[in-house]
Amino acid sequence: MTSTQQEIDVSYSVSNEFFKLWLDENMHYTSAYYSRPDMTLEEAQEEKLERLYNFAELDDTKTVLDIGCGWGSAIDCVVRRGIKRADGITLSTEQLAWCKERNLPKSDFILCDYALYEPKEKYDGLISIEMIDHLCSPAQAREGKAVAIYREYFNKLAEWVEPGAAFGFQAILRNRVPRKRQDLKDLAFTADVIFPGGLNPRIEELVQAVNPYWEIEELSMLRTHYGKTVAEWLRRMRSHEVYIRKTWGDELFDDYDRYLRTCVTGFAKHWSGDVQMKLRRVTPR
Ligand SMILES: C[S@@+](CC[C@H](N)C(=O)[O-])C[C@H]1O[C@@H](n2cnc3c(N)ncnc32)[C@H](O)[C@@H]1O
Asked: How far, in Å, are 32, 82, 227, 256 from residue 224 at the CA level?
């Protein structure tokens, strides 16, 4: 059971104009990768994509699927870097409209739950950036179902490529639990109000769930990179405070200010993390 279309729309269909005010120019809504401390958010987002493009071993003779493609930022990057064909799937109606407006060559965007997706032919490589956190609800995790749900996702994706194919994967993570009551309330607010139905996986759950079809060839932790990314989103959003309050109301500004502040603290205090993995499709014995 993934987040429902309605829950996804709460998180991503607020207004494309609203997100455009504070995300980078290309609309990546996931951690950037700062290989140099003086990088702009735009440069660090391109760097994140370059790593995933290389992890997925893409080039202009390859086809790729981006599972949970957001506003199409990753597809935009792979098309610029060189690709034979790139498809993206999302559950958000607003995101799909934005993706289509990009009018990118060699690409297609589909509104579809990944669990129901049936590709016409196998892809050469895969990318998925911080979509897996929509697959397991807090209630399912309490029932001990998280690893099985994540494994279902990895197994399904394995059907869409040949053995030997590579997968550039990125996920937000949950780690330590805060001690203070207010911190717990802020985290619960973020989960319930901004991202209803979702739950960040733990790194050990993902390491278990990639088996038996995927081998982890490389793994990097991006916790500090995500801290820097959300701090920049917060700075940019606050720089438009008057306009946001006037256009969408005080509640939206206050909710997003609280959520982004909680994220900044969460990455600094290790409540949350982020991981990039290079996965290789293997044949089980
Ligand atoms: C945090 S956003 C990340 C978007 C994009 N990958 C990026 O880097 O900006 C999560 C994305 O996963 C998509 N998503 C969530 N559950 C999904 C599902 N079951 N099937 C397809 N897409 C899904 C959402 O619609 C959204 O586009």
From this structure: 10, 30, 5, 21
